[in-house]
Amino acid sequence: MSEDNPLGIDTTKNYLAPSQEIKIPELLPGSIIDIGGGGEGVIGQVGGKRITAIDLREGEIEEAKRLAPDANFVVADATNLPFEDEEFDHATSFFTGMYMSNDIKEKAMKETYRVMKKDGEFWYWDSVVQEAEELYIIPIKYILPNGTVKQTGYGVKSYKDQTIPTIKKMLEKTGFQVEIIENHEHWYFLKAKKV
To answer: Which burial class, exposed, middle or buried, applies to 33 when counting CB atoms under 10 A from its CB (0-12, 13-18, 19+)?
Structure first.
């Protein structure tokens, strides 16, 4: 174990990205659906009762409820959301797409588009997954708007095409207009608008 590898990850088979720092901005006003918002419940911690976070896994929802008790949580499939058309003002996804195959990601984006109001914004954070024999792991320190600093990490099998051009193309195919792209080498942020 070392300062660069506090978990003692076998880096001969796994890709361990350098620790990343992400400042979470204040969220837009209005209702927000957070796709894959279980686990740390990062967006729920920021937006409280305005957030409806969905996650496929009940255990992830239970963990997020402890960290973001004011947010609303629903166990749901992002490809078949149990909400009306245009029910939410905006949408977010914080390091969720990396756990989905590209066909599932596209379906989830279509559903997100459906439940968002026109002119709503979709804020999408995710990782540029590098190739590794076993796992790709990215440790993250995130800073909430109130200054609270927390640490987490995400790991997936490294077969995903998680590049900015791929995600941008998926968003545009769905009908979103991508307005902002931030490339941070190991992760990225895209802001897209429902037009």
So the answer is: buried
- At 98-118, the pLDDT tens digits run 999 899 999 999 999 999 999
Between CA 76 and CA 126 the distance in angstroms is 20
CATH number of 28-132+162-194: 3.40.50.150
Report how far residue 89's alpha carbon sits from residue 105's, in angstroms, rounded to the nearest whole number. Answer: 21
What is the length of the chain?
A: 195
Could you tell me which residues are beta bridge partners of residue 181?
Answer: 190
Give the integer Cα–Cα distance in Å for 113 and 147.
31
Cα dihedral 39, 41, 42, 44 in deg (nearest 10): 170
Domains of the chain, residue spans? 28-132+162-194
Tokens, residue 44: 């729920």
| Tokens, residue 18 | 């350098």
pTM, two decimal places: 0.91
> What residue type is 170 in one-letter code?
M
pLDDT tens digit string along 142-163?
A: 999 999 999 999 988 766 678 8
Q: Which residues contact 158 (CB under 8 A, 6 or more apart)?
A: 15, 129, 130, 131, 132, 134, 135, 136
Question: Where do we find the tokens 């588009």?
Answer: 113
Q: Could you give the count of Cα atoms lying within 13 Å of 3 in the half-sphere of its Cβ?
A: 0
